[in-house]
Amino acid sequence: MVVQIIFFVAMYPILFLMYFILRPAGEFKNGYCFAVGMKRDWIGQKEVVEIQEGYRREAKRLLIVLALIPFVTWVLPGFAIPLTVWMLWMVAVCILPMIPVARANGRLKRWKRAQGFSTSVFSETYTEMKNAGAVRRVKFLPFLIPMLLSGAVAAGSLAYFGRRDLPAYGVVVVSFALLTALCYGVALWMDRQKTQVISNDSDVNVNYTRAKKSLWKNTWLGMAWTNTVYTAVTAVVFVINRSTVVALVWATLVYTAALVWLLLLHMKKSDRIDAHYEEKREEPYDAAADDDAWIGGVIYYNKKDKRTMVSQRIGIGTTTNLATTTGKVFDMIGLVTLLVVIPFCCIWVMLEEYTPLQLAVKDAALVAEHLGVAYELPLADIEKITLIEELPRLRKLNGNGMENIYEGTFRDGAERCEVFLNPQNGVFLQIETAEETYYMSAAEDAATVEIYEAVAR
Predict the structure, then answer these.
(1) Which of 38, 59, 107, 449 is 20 to 30 A away from residue 417, measured at CA?
(2) Cβ partners under 8 Å of residue 196, min gap 6
(3) Is the pLDDT of residue 288 over 50?
């Protein structure tokens, strides 16, 4: 139940964020509609209106279907299967909303060709030469404060939890703190992009780019501060009560809502900037002639353009030019993540949850196996073995803590112990050696009793 709540809080809003980012794709904006260069007086024509309306219907139907799928996970057993559904759903949320956009993009290109308008790749790339095309808005100092605060929280958490043999909690806080530094890194990278050319007037280009980059700087700075607060709250929750996730769920909900709000606010302000400069845009720079370089309206491939990064025609931010080496590397990393890493993680979690525990006496040793040998205790080292019907209150330090498998290092009150058992079983082995206490069980209670009798003799 708790895991499901976390999934819904952290992942479910992404669907609606994608919808609101892509919804304006069919509107005439900055000389484009569905990433196709258009003139304003073309927009009202019957065929174009039909393409726009068809896109809205497809997008809404897809939104409804994707919004319903996660609720299936409430009735699915265990952890691995719901996790797999959520991971595949996330991939679908990132990819499927692009399909209606691509279909509309293709229809609009065909319409332009039927009207005799060109969609071929434009052979020239315009560069703003004023101030060498450099507009910089990101400064280090505003980002330094949240990074220092996040770093202090991370360092304090590592020290605090390290002294209490709970390094995993410190690592979680550190991972969140690193996101604050990542915000600065991305902001700096975006700030180094060339000045965007929308006019023959250099002042228009520079002022337009300055406004856009200032907006991105403020958005990333807001995200950095939001992440810093979330990092601190996470650390406090772990310190106060590590056994509850209620406070952490609420903190994650507020954190996610804040990030969504920042992105929506960014989109609103970006639209205002574009509207202000709409009349200052000039026809040669609306890139109407390079429609074919935008595959499906979302993938940019143009061998005649040497730039690695270009502004998105749909949505917000930038995208890579797949015709460049760097662009291929970036997209290959993303493709490997989608097609290899995510499926591998899902399969591994399934194996972890559904591979039964194996506990047996082999060659004068008690051997515990689960996807490999987990523990091997020589019988001569066992000082005491007890058959118990009720487990003490175990708190995981590191390892596996699924509903049907506890495996790894746990804490029994104030003492550390090693655990290898199915908590849903009825009997367990409590094993004491000179250096460690173990709690173990076989896959079935009968097998656990047999092992106890064999070792206790």
Answers:
(1) 449
(2) 128, 205, 208, 209, 212, 311
(3) no
Question: Measured between alpha carbons, how far is 199 from 280 in angstroms, rounded to an integer?
Answer: 7
**Pair 250, 362 in one domain:** no
CA distance 452 to 457: 8
pLDDT, one tens digit per residue, over 342-381 is 788 888 888 888 888 999 999 899 999 998 888 999 999 9
Q: How, if at all, do strands 428-432 and 437-440 pair?
A: antiparallel
Provide the residue range defining the domain that includes 279.
Answer: 123-286
Residue 58 token pair? 């497809």
151 shares a domain with 270: yes
Tell me: do 147 and 256 sit in the same domain: yes
Q: 406 phi and psi, to 5 degrees? A: -110, 120
Q: From CA 25, how far away is CA 101, in angstroms rounded?
A: 7
Average per-residue pLDDT in the chain?
86
Does 282 have pLDDT greater than 60? yes
Residues 336, 325: Cα–Cα separation, whole Å:
16
Residue with tokens 């330090």: 397
Distances (CA, A) of 132 to 68, 203, 233, 251, 289: 51, 13, 44, 45, 26
Q: Which of residues 250, 268, 286 is at a domain's end? A: 286
The SS3 assignment for 105 reads helix
Q: Are 317 and 219 in contact (CB under 8 A)?
A: no
Contacts of residue 80, defined as CB under 8 A and 6 or more positions apart, other chains included, come to 346, 349, 350, 352, 353, 354, 402
Residue 72 forms part of a structural domain: no
Residues 240 and 151 in one domain: yes
How many domains does the chain divide into? 2
On the question of pLDDT at 286 being above 70, the answer is: no
Answer yes or no: are the C-beta atoms of 119 and 112 closer than 8 Å.
yes
Q: Are 208 and 168 in contact (CB under 8 A)?
A: no
What's the pLDDT score for residue 79? 83
Q: How far is CA 25 from CA 99, 278, 442, in A?
A: 12, 17, 57
DSSP-derived secondary structure for 281-345 = --GGGS-GGGGGGEETTTEE--TT---SEEE-SSSSSEEEBTTSHHHHHHHHHHHHIIIIIHHHH
- Does the residue 97 lie in any domain? no
Does 268 share its domain with 368? no
pTM equals: 0.72
Span 223-244, pLDDT tens digits = 999 999 999 999 998 888 655 5
